Every structure is written in C-alpha cells, then in structure tokens.
Amino acid sequence: MKYLEEFQNPELARRLLDDIRATVTRPWALMEVCGGQTHTVVRQGIDELLPDGLRMIHGPGCPVCVTPLEVIDKALEIASRPEVVFCSFGDMLRVPGTDKDLFRVRSEGGDVRVVYSPLDALRVAEQNPEKQVVFFGIGFETTAPPNAMTVYQAKKRGIDNFSLLVSHVRVPPAIEAIMQSPDCRVQGFLAAGHVCSVMGTAEYPELAERFKVPIVVTGFEPLDILEGIRRTVRQLERGEHTVDNAYPRAVRSEGNPAAQAMLADVFETTDRAWRGIGTIPQSGWRLSARYRAYDAEHRFDVGDVNTCEPAACRAGEVLQGLLKPHECEAFGTVCTPRNPLGATMVSSEGACAAYYLYRRLGVPAAPAAPLEASPVG
Known about the structure:
Shape: globular
Largest sheet: 6 strands, mixed
C-alpha cells in the first residue's frame, strides 16, 4: 500500500524518535491542528513516546466538532419540515443539538438521509422535484470545494429545489485566534496537510513571522507526524520560525488553483462561530451573492436561532488545547459515545472520541506495543 505501509514502519519511527530525543534540550508545546492527526497521535501513543517536556496539544481541527450548536439546531429545524429531504454525511447524525439530534428527527418521521457526496444530494433533488433537498455543508478547506462545485452545478443545471446549509471554516484565522489568546501555550504548529493540498501555504508565512512560531505542514501517518515534530523542534531549538512543507507528496506551495477558483466564485469569507470557542473574524465561508438563492439558512428563514452550550460540556476548552479530554469531569461517565454531551465525543476526528476509543481514560500508561502499523481504512 504505497504511502501507507511505508509511512508506518516501526524501525524508521524509532530512528525519528531518537533524533527528536537528541534534538530537544528544553520543554516545548506543539499543536497538531487536524483531528485526523490527533487520532494518529493517540492511537499510536506518539505523545507518550516523546521526550519529557515535549507536549502535544490537540487543536480545533475536527470539522464536526467546531460546528456551532446554533447551526446544529438550524439543521434540526429544517430537517423536521415535511417538505424537506435533509442529506448529510453520517458523522453529523449523532451530534447533539439543544434537545435532540438528526437520528431523533429521522425516528420522528423526518426524511434524513446519509449520503457519501454532495453530488448524491443533488441527484436526490433531481429525482424528487416536489421536495426541498438540503445538504449539510460543513468542514474546512478540504470539503468546501466539492460543496461549492455542487452549488455551481445546481445553478448551471437549473435545479432550484436544492440548497446548502453552510458551516465551512478556515484554518489560518483559527491559528491566529489561538495565538492571540491570553491562555495560549502553543510554540509550534503541525499544519493540516489536506487543507494545504487545496489552499497551498501562502497564508502561513505571515502568521509564522508575526507570532514567531514554526509551522510545519504534516501528513497523517505515524512517520508523517514524527517527521513534522522533528522539523518543528529543530526550528524551535535554533530559534527559527518559518513554514516548512514536510508533506511534499501531497502539498504544493500554490495548492490547487482550480479548487481555489471554484471557492472564490461560489463562496465569500465571513465571520464564523466555532463551537466552544466563539466567533473568529473572517474564519468561514458563506455563499456569495450570485448563489445566495441556494443558501438553506435564508431559504428556510432560520437565521435567528440562538442557543447555549450545556454547562457540563468542556469541549470548548478541549478544542482550544486548554484541557485534555480525560481531564473533563464528564468524560467517560456522563459523556460517552452512546450519550455524548458534545461533538468532540461523537466525531471520528474528535479528541474526546480518540481518548475514549483508545482507552485514554485516566493517567496515561506506557503503550505495550508502540507504533505498530495502523490498520488501513
């Protein structure tokens, strides 16, 4: 399996760990931005194998997790309408709103369907012209281009019974917000490789220079993570703060110009609320004026939904890297994957889900068989 098994080699991992140990001379705190990277770190026990004082902080890079509660409630309100077919990726169905989730809406008679592509939802709209078909468009720069393309196709083909409930967010403004927080402890970033494969790296040098932090673009396999850590700590030890691409097999500095052009046509940047964090200026997208007719929030007039997070859920602190999941009083007791308080326990990329799945339920113990090849799929 090219680019999988060769990046899961335990012997190469040990060599990288030895290099990291030989490099680090003082404490450092690094943040992996992406939830997929967090799952690799926790599943493989990478954070437990690093030298003392070198800490990994889990960032807000899970798109399901950062979707704000008010958007979930808007989705629930729209999906409950008898004229609507509500389409979503499966990981959104169990994300709790204020009173219920999309599974509950479906059990109460709502037409809620799991699809594998936004184009599947557009096909549903073509096949059901008497229904209003809504696709739940969430995610970072990686999922935004196909959603933009679907809206473009809907307009081009005159499919007027399709709309998009938009909750897209952008990574660079989130990094800026993290660094501006008075509680920030992050000294270096592992940037999300899939995001940079779309957007390139042009937005990161200014952040690295302004906040004096190295930013290393990193992949998702064990050796990717370790190489990203190695390059980051080398910069820190040398007093450097540049952008470094440790994922060249997937990322070019210019990114994907065609995807960027589609995003520029269909979307425009806007302030966006992040669940548990708050509103970050210019951190999201909304449909541009040319495509506003396909905006489900306007079509169904749900723009005034306001909610409050449950007091027992500390997902916001987890998403900001201020709290490890097992340090939350509700983790594993009141809050479990079967009865989640927040999205970080539901999502396949959520930090709380990773800690629960890989049994990080208390004080970490040394892994018995570190860095074995992770299962594919």
